[in-house]
Predict the 3D structure of the following.
Amino acid sequence: FRRVLKPNTGKLLFWEHVLSEDNPALALQQKILSPIQTLVADGCHLNRRTGANIRNAGFEGGVEMEYVDLGGTILDGSDVISPTVYGIATA
C-alpha cells in the first residue's frame, strides 16, 4: 500500500478482522475454519495477522492501530470474525 500513497501525507485507513491475539482456542478455530471461509466469503481469511503485516510494512509516517474484540458469540458464529484491528498508516 505504501507504494501507492503520496509520500509523507498519504494515509491508509483500515478495519480488518484478524487472528485472535488473546484467545488461543478461538485462534485455533479460526485456523481450522479459514479454508472454508475463503470459499464461502469471497476469499476472506480468518487466520491473517493483518495488523502485524501493516506495522511491518515500513510506513515511514508510522502506524496508529487498535486491537479489539467485537464480542461475537459462538451461538451465531460471529465469534470467529470478532477479533479486529483498525487504524491509520501514514506513508
The chain has two helices and three strands. The mean pLDDT is 92.
